[in-house]
Design brief:
The structure is a single chain. The protein is an alpha/beta fold and 548 residues long. Helices cover 31% and strands 19% of the residues. It is built from 18 helices and 20 strands. Helix 5 packs across helix 6.
Length: 548
């Protein structure tokens, strides 16, 4: 092992040492003459406290020992001198529950007037820190926290009192570039106005903050280009909440707790990427960012009872897209394909050339074709379209590794056979009829004839779609797992007939037996109807499609 480390360059060792806990990093200074100054010159300190006891006395002792050791470690960078400043500081505190964390980080006023973290951050060498990460973990070490495993947004009751509080004045100011906080209370500005001239990225994970203080942070950081709000509680800003990020180019709002009835207006004129995952809300990008490249929208179910109003959800969906009129790529996930069908949107996304739509589709739906028509109509320059049709049941089942393994084994032979049939058809070889096994789908139900499988889609037929005439070159369709999907097959036929510049159709028919949905006869029929060759190829299955 020693020989292996001896062969590594100092630059590589310095990179490795950036991830080593402070205790082990300090120990490396005693290994040899070469190692004596390496850890300090790495410019990184990782402070970690693991709290298992719940009794007050040992908790106080652990707290005092943690602070003393942290200050001693930071003192070492004073000795290293200005040539090797501290650039990365990570503080991780782990305990079994939030109460222990709260008592550890915010003790009585006599010991630490502002709390443990402000005491550590007040050290003189922290002023040069470029990247600051603080994480409070209230779970078994190595396991995701409870809110990260929930399928729904966290509700306000799940937050409780904050684990710790910080003010902007506690943070390093002049050099700070990246700020990553977990489970922090409201990041208030304090009495004095502070400026972060180089701060370009902020991530708040399961934190609590008001829209007003978010606005003050953005004003204090004129170079703030990346904003990530994850599982964060935005305290009630009234009927209308406004978020202003003048310099932001990337914005993520992921599973945040926001008042359902409130409108959320986002003023980020420089935005290039915007991703939102959460329940349906009235979200507006005003003004619409002219440089917007990618938009991800992932609508999830409401928590508890399904009290969704389809009309309001549909209105929110199209209102969201009105702020994305300059976007080039859309990744859209909705809990019902009918969301797109409830109104006829007066909207043109002139710059969109790529759309991926993932939606729950039920065979009983009478509006699915209208949904696709609305999407095609508002994207006149569309070049690539992927539609993933799924179900609630499938979404939950595919989360399970056992189910994925079972499906992979069950359909592997069918998938390979389908590829072989496509290959042989391309070179003109005859394709023999399949002798179905006892477990095969076609042995249990009769094969459907083409005239029974394909029907006109009333919501699409007889309409003019500019993208079909001039731009749409690639269509990918993913059907429901393990079932035939007549609507999906009808879509294949529609695009093959009406796509004037269509070059390829990519198919994932759910159970990988592509020839069950599009057999060789139908493939020949497509070629004859269109008068040109359209490649029909297997598509890669999306385990989780969406915009995040």
């Amino acid at each position: 092992m020693a020989d292996n480390f001896a062969r590594l360059t100092d630059d590589l060792l310095l990179h490795i040492l950036q991830f080593v806990p402070a205790k082990e990093g300090a120990f490396t200074t005693t290994l040899s003459k070469r190692w004596r100054h390496l850890w300090r010159t790495s410019g990184a300190v990782n402070l970690r406290a693991l709290i298992l006891e719940e009794e007050e006395a040992p908790l106080n002792a652990k707290r005092d020992r943690f602070v003393a050791q942290a200050l001693k470690v930071l003192d070492g960078f004073v000795e290293a001198g200005p040539l090797f400043p501290l650039k990365k500081l990570t503080i991780v505190v782990e305990a079994r529950n939030r109460q222990i964390l709260r008592r550890f980080l915010d003790p009585d006023l006599d010991a630490f007037p502002d709390g443990v973290l402000p005491r550590v951050l007040a050290h003189q060498v922290v002023r040069t820190v470029h990247e600051l990460r603080i994480q409070a973990i209230d779970n078994v070490p190595g396991e995701p926290m409870l809110f990260e495993k929930d399928l729904f947004e966290p509700d306000q009751a799940s937050f409780g009192p904050p684990i710790y509080n910080l003010r902007l004045s506690h943070l390093p100011r002049q050099a700070l570039r990246v700020l990553d906080l977990s489970d922090c209370g409201d990041l208030a500005p304090g009495l004095d106005f502070v400026v972060f001239p180089q701060l370009h990225s902020i991530r708040l994970n399961h934190c609590t903050i008001t829209p007003q203080n978010l606005d003050k942070i953005a004003r204090a950081a004129p170079s703030l280009t990346t904003v990530r709000l994850e599982f964060t509680l935005l305290l009630d800003g009234g009927a209308g909440t406004v978020l202003v990020f003048p310099a932001a180019t990337s914005l993520l709002i992921y599973m945040c707790c926001i008042t359902v009835q409130a409108t959320l207006e986002i003023n980020a004129p420089m935005l290039q990427e915007f991703v939102y995952k959460g329940i349906s809300r009235n979200i507006s990008l005003l003004p619409p960012p002219e440089g917007l490249l990618r938009v991800g929208l992932d609508q999830i179910y409401f928590r508890g009872k399904e009290t969704r109003n389809l009309m309001s959800v549909c209105s929110n969906f199209w209102n969201f897209l009105r702020g994305c009129i300059h976007a080039r790529r859309l990744n859209l996930t909705v809990w019902s394909l009918d969301v797109l069908a409830q109104t006829s949107p007066v909207l043109e996304l002139m710059h969109v050339d790529s759309v991926e739509l993932t939606a729950v589709y039920w065979p009983s739906s009478k509006m699915a074709d209208v949904s696709i028509a609305n999407l095609l109509r508002c994207c006149p320059a569309l070049r690539k379209l992927r539609i993933n049709l799924t179900t609630d049941k499938e979404t939950h089942l595919t989360e399970m590794q056992v189910t994925r393994s079972y499906l992979a084994q069950k359909f592997k032979a069918d998938y390979e056979e389908s590829l072989e049939m496509f290959r042989r058809y391309e070179i003109g070889q005859p394709v023999a009829a399949r002798e179905d096994s006892e477990d095969s789908v076609s042995s249990k139900r009769p094969r459907m004839q083409p005239d029974l499988m394909f029907h006109e889609l009333d919501g699409l037929t007889g309409q003019d779609f500019k993208c079909l005439e001039t731009s749409l070159a690639s269509v990918a369709l993913q059907f429901r797992q393990g079932e035939k999907c007549p609507f999906g097959v009808n879509l294949v036929m529609f695009f093959a007939q009406h796509g004037k510049v269509l070059e390829e159709i990519l198919l994932d028919a759910g159970n990988a037996r592509l020839h069950e949905h599009l057999n060789v006869k139908i493939d020949k029929w497509l070629a004859g109807q269109s008068g040109r060759k359209i490649q029909i190829l297997p598509a890669e299955r999306r385990e989780k499609a969406g915009g995040h």
